[in-house]
Amino acid sequence: MGPDSCSSALVCLSGGVDSTAALLQCSRLFSSVRAVYVQTGHRTPPEQAYESCRQLGIEFSVADARVLFNTQIKQFTLDAYRSGITPNPCALCNARVKLAVPFSMLGHGECLVTGHYAGNSVSTLERGMDSTKDQSYFLSLVPGEILDRCFFPLAKSHKGDVRAEVLESGLPFLERESQDLCFQRAGAGVPGDVVDTDGNTVGRHNGLDSYTPGQRKGFGAHNGRKYVVRLDILRNRLIIGEEEYLYSEYCILNSINWLNKPVEEKFTCMVQIRYRKTAVPADVFLNGDGTQVVVKFHRSQKAVAPGQVGVMFLSDSVIGGGIIDRYEGDTYA
User: Does 3.30.420.40 match the CATH number of domain 8-169?
Assistant: First the structure.
């Protein structure tokens, strides 16, 4: 959606430079604009958000999503860490809270606007033009019915230009960018053994919830460079080893959010397994109902972490995203 297909806009406003730029652009593109701050924790809307709306003559409101965030994101994330997997709360939050709540507020003919660096059209999600800021990965779990009502005005913008535009407008914005976990992982984990790939005990860990595959620190000094290879939840053991043990030929994607589901049971696409990792070619095998797929990478990938988001791309379009799990089945041809 966009100004060609809707007359009004609801802008998700955090007070940061990107959402402020989206607000500014919408004030020029739409006949009617309102803004909402989705509150997920103790932080209240920053004064910059109020002031930007005041200067532009835009209605500003706060949506209290704290209970939903605590149950759908915070508790889920803490439980996941305790289960020895590495979740991606930001991607989950976009799908379940940050876009879902304002989506429920939309009126007839109103589109939902955010400051994400991504593009979309009907039933598609595409990479943003600024490859250093592209956020399609973090939006891959957002249901298609929500994306179909979204407009991303920064889709073809570069970060430097966005900042310059807001500075020139005189609108205030927060200088900091939110990149860290927005809640504390309270409580200590259960200590256990650190073992090597041969099963020898070589040390102690302070709780598996502090580790993720590929990690190189936090488990003591050992001969040579060692990495976290796997978390053994059943026996509360941290398995470490050389880099060669980090590589996986396969993984599973669960709970897939299909945006453009292929009709073939096997297809080839690009798969991205972490935000800062480059998408790589892989063969994908669908199960019966398509809620789960097996991914066979053309080249084994390092530190494939269960719980992280795996995103499937055809060219620059997202066809689906899911949650990574370890594959322990038969070899696929």
Answer: no
Which value, in Å, is the radius of gyration of the alpha carbons in the chain? 22
Measured distance CA(92)–CA(100) in Å, rounded: 11
Two domains, one topology: 8-169 and 192-241? no
Domains of the chain, residue spans: 8-169, 192-241, 247-325
Please confirm, yes or no, whether 26 is among the known catalytic residues: no
Q: Report the alpha-carbon angle 144-150-153, nearest 5.
A: 135
Structure tokens at 44: 């209240």
Catalytic residue (choose from 6, 12, 26, 93)? 93
Architecture of domain 247-325: Beta Barrel (2.40)
Report the C-alpha gap between 24 and 130 in whole angstroms.
19
Q: What average pLDDT does range 38-59 have in this prediction?
A: 96
What span, in angstroms and rounded, lies between the C-alpha atoms of 45 and 129?
29
| pLDDT, tens digit, 9 for 90 and up, residues 152-176 | 999 999 999 999 999 999 999 998 7
- Is 182 an annotated catalytic residue? yes
- Which of these, 1, 14, 6, lies nearest to 33 by C-alpha position? 6
Please state which CATH number belongs to domain 192-241: 2.30.30
The pLDDT of residue 12 is: 98
Nearest to 25 by CA among 116, 174, 139, 154: 154
